[in-house]
TrEMBL record:
Native source species: Cervus elaphus hippelaphus
CDD domains registered for this protein in UniProt: DEXHc_RAD54B, SF2_C_SNF
Family annotation (InterPro entries): Helicase_ATP-bd, Helicase_C-like, P-loop_NTPase, SNF2-like_sf, SNF2/RAD54-like_C, SNF2_N, SNF2_RAD54_helicase_repair
A biological process term (GO) from this entry: reciprocal meiotic recombination
Compartment annotation: Nucleus
Any single Pfam family the record assigns to this protein: SNF2-rel_dom
Name listed for the protein in its UniProt record: DNA repair and recombination protein RAD54B
Annotated Helicase ATP-binding domain residues: 211-378
Helicase C-terminal domain sequence ranges: 547-708
Keywords: ATP-binding, DNA damage, DNA repair, DNA-binding, Helicase, Hydrolase, Nucleotide-binding, Nucleus
GO CC terms of this entry: nucleus
Organismal lineage: Eukaryota, Metazoa, Chordata, Craniata, Vertebrata
Protein task: Involved in DNA repair and mitotic recombination. May play an active role in recombination processes in concert with other members of the RAD52 epistasis group.
């Protein structure tokens, strides 16, 4: 045996003994006196000063100790055995600080660099030089096989889009029959319509599902912002894989399952018909009249489009079909691995999986893991390992109290996680198509509250419920009730009046928190107040909206308006305004049957439509709706989550829009709406970044100081936001 290799400390680590940090790969077992050890597993030994920690390959501490002399720890040899916390270890080698800080030393065969598909030499398929590559048995078979060994489309034609050829490693794994490698070329008919970013997206998806980007993995997440044409990219991929393949031209897939929100099932069907017609590929959509059984019994259909809800009802039938490709639209809803939908989809034996989402998936590390593990199971190890190796160090590093060492470790772990997952996650923002779109003008309109609104607002802020909130005497959810009342009041006093009447008729009124909030408010309303006969003057925003609609109607008679609110009852008020002024309108909210939604959207977008206004619930219209028929969008109220508002705004400014787009955000000045707006832009960093859709107002926590700021009415200011900007203008050019 050769002498054991001595592992010494690098020069950069020789400054202070207590600051020395060294890392070693080891094997371990329980301490025993047996001569021949039975090692139980691999581990990582961390030596810092006189102390040491033993972590298993999932990042869990399995041993700690101290007591060795510094001189002993400074010279640790390969093959050396040590005792740590009742465990015996044998040192196998040194781990570089970079490999430890990135997390590469722990699992998945070495981290980011190891999962990359390599073009390294692999065993070559044996091919008898005296036989044809294609097995031939007759003249007809000879002709067919020869044709199959040629690309479906000309790879040398101008503007052709040719996929990456598989490397030798890929051929060794997936071309066992030694078919000749042929070019996979996207249908020129589709290429003609694909924008540059969409071509990149098709290439990305193809390489992912073919296992060319990550060894042994066939999943992808396409997280492009809304309006970038994710549907067309997927249709191009499906049509390509349905007809072609790199090995002898043999198609890669036969059947595809597309799972989507119910409101988008028909949209997918229409997109297939738009780009491929009705003869090229047979599509089956599941609805009340068309059951999954029809698809399973017919050999003609290649693509099944189904809603998440119908998937759960028909899971047993779907499992009888072998699907080669699974696409989950709006897939961020799978972020919880415990919900039935995620469990059902995981149970399908389909290796090629794609998630489509317009929402950034990296903001919540727990949800991020679930999505990653769905498309590429096991690539981040177990959940417990992921938490130890990535989530915990990253979260700790982002705390204000984090040490420099913790901050650097978290940054390196985050970088490694991004590197690893970036191989199969692609996200582009709307900036990539802005040059193709007409101009967009965004306006934030600050509206002075009406006299009745101001008086009611004062009364609410002086209520016992608000005082208790500021003293921390009520439950955690009490402040949400107060905030909800203030937001209703900002929309219109009649909404608050209706809520009070509704609560008073409830048998639990005397014991409810709302009583402490609403007590005395009815005395502020006029004695003969009738919410059905509301006036525009009672609400600053409604007054501004009425004038704005009149101006648009007069100056842009050929253009249409999308009017958005978070609340159904507010939409009722806006609908009544339309009736009073004779504006033609259509409406889509949570009560609109899913089967009717696409028809309503198509009608509004048609150039023959006579509707001037589209009344839209932001919750119902937040997913996938294309409202390019409107070029003016008015957000009547504001949401805590800027993603909700940004989603709504993206309905009109997207591919296919012909007119310059005008966005109006209405805010009641001096009130909670301005505070929400300020919180939004601080969260976004004024960059337009979207926060996670999961962060609704129900999850928001406030300090007492923040609540004091929220529960303040700035009556003397024309615009608090303007005041905060320290602008030198007087701010007198205001309306309303």
């Amino acid at each position: 045996h050769s002498a054991p290799k001595e592992i010494t400390v690098s020069k950069g680590q020789e400054e202070k003994p207590d600051s020395l940090v060294k890392y070693f790969s080891v094997v371990w077992c329980k301490a025993s006196k047996k001569k021949h050890k039975k090692w139980e597993g691999d581990a990582v030994l961390i030596v810092k000063g006189k102390s040491f920690t033993l972590k298993d390959l999932e990042g869990k501490d399995i041993g700690r100790g101290t007591g060795y002399k510094l001189k002993e720890l400074e010279k640790i040899e390969e093959g050396q055995t040590m005792m740590i916390g009742g465990k015996e270890i044998e040192v196998m080698g040194i781990i570089s600080p970079d490999d430890f800080n990135s997390g590469r030393c722990f699992q998945f065969g070495g981290g980011c660099s190891a999962v990359l598909s390599s073009s390294q030499a692999a065993k070559k398929c044996f091919s008898n030089p005296f036989k044809s590559v294609c097995k031939l048995s007759s003249k007809e078979n000879k002709q067919n096989s020869f044709q199959n060994c040629k690309p479906r489309h000309d790879p040398y034609a101008p503007d052709s889009l040719v996929m990456l050829r598989p490397d030798k490693n890929h051929q060794w794994l997936f071309n066992k029959t030694c078919f000749p490698v042929v070019d996979v070329v996207i249908d020129p008919h589709l290429v003609y319509y694909l924008r540059p970013h969409q071509k990149e997206g098709v290439i990305f998806l193809y390489e992912c599902v073919m296992g060319m980007r990550v060894n042994g993995r066939c999943g992808a997440i396409l997280a492009d912002e809304m309006g970038l044409g994710k549907t067309l990219q997927c249709i191009s991929l499906i049509w390509t894989l349905q007809c072609q393949g790199p090995y002898g031209g043999k198609p890669i897939i036969k059947k595809t399952l597309i799972v989507t929100p119910g409101s988008l099932v028909n949209n997918w069907r229409k997109e297939f018909q738009k780009w491929l017609g009705i003869e090229r590929i047979k599509i089956f959509t599941v609805d009340q009249d068309h059951k999954v059984e029809e698809f399973t019994k017919s050999p003609f259909y290649s693509v099944l489009i189904i809603s998440y809800e119908m998937l759960l009802r028909s899971l047993d039938q779907i499992k009888t079909v072998k699907f080669d490709l699974l696409i989950c639209d709006e897939g961020h809803r799978l972020k919880n691995s415990a919900i039935k939908t995620t469990t059902a989809l995981i149970s399908l034996s389909c290796e090629k999986r794609i998630i489509l989402t317009g929402t950034p998936v990296q903001n919540d590390l727990q949800e991020f893991f679930t999505l990653i593990d769905f498309v590429n199971p096991g690539i981040l190890g177990s959940l417990s390992a992921y938490r130890k190796i990535y989530e915990e160090p990253i979260i700790i590093s982002r705390q204000p109290s984090a040490s420099e060492e913790e901050r650097k470790l978290g940054e390196q772990r985050a970088a490694e996680l991004t590197c690893l997952t970036g191989l199969f996650i692609l996200r582009r923002t709307q900036e990539v198509i802005n040059k193709y779109l007409p101009p967009k003008i965004e306006n934030v309109v600050f509206c002075r509250p009406g006299a009745l609104q101001i008086e009611l607002y004062r009364q609410l802020l002086n209520s016992q419920a608000v005082r208790f909130c500021l003293q921390g005497l009520l439950e955690n959810t009490s402040h949400l009730i107060c905030i909800g009342a203030l937001k209703k009041l900002c929309n219109h006093p009649c909404l608050l009046f209706g809520s009070i009447k509704e609560k008073e008729s409830n048998s639990t009124w005397d014991e409810s928190e709302e009583r402490n909030l609403y007590e005395g408010l009815m005395n502020v309303f006029p004695g003969d107040y009738n919410p059905i006969m509301f006036t525009e003057e009672e609400s600053g925003k409604l007054q501004v909206l009425s004038k704005l609609l009149a101006v648009i109607r007069e100056l842009r008679p050929a253009e249409k308006v999308v009017l958005v609110s978070n609340y159904t009852r507010t939409l009722d008020i806006l609908q009544e305004v339309c009736k009073r002024h004779g504006y033609t309108y259509t409406r889509l909210d949570g009560q609109t049957p899913i089967s009717q939604r696409q028809k309503i959207v198509d009608g509004f977008n048609s150039k023959y439509s006579s509707d001037f206004i589209f009344l839209l619930s932001s919750k119902a219209g937040g997913v996938g709706l294309n409202l390019i028929g409107g070029s003016h969008l008015i957000l009547y109220d504001i949401d805590w989550n800027p993603a909700t508002d940004i989603q709504a705004m993206s309905r009109v400014w997207r591919d296919g829009q012909k007119h310059p787009v005008h966005i109006y955000r209405l805010l009641t000045t001096g009130t909670i709406e301005e505070k929400i707006y300020q919180r939004q832009i601080s969260k976004q960093g004024l960059s337009g970044a979207v926060v996670d859709l999961a962060k609704t107002s129900d999850h928001i926590q406030f300090s007492v100081e923040e609540l004091k700021n929220l529960f303040t009415l700035h009556e003397s200011s024309h615009c608090v936001t303007h005041d905060l900007l320290d602008c030198e203008c007087t701010g007198e050019n205001h309306t309303g």
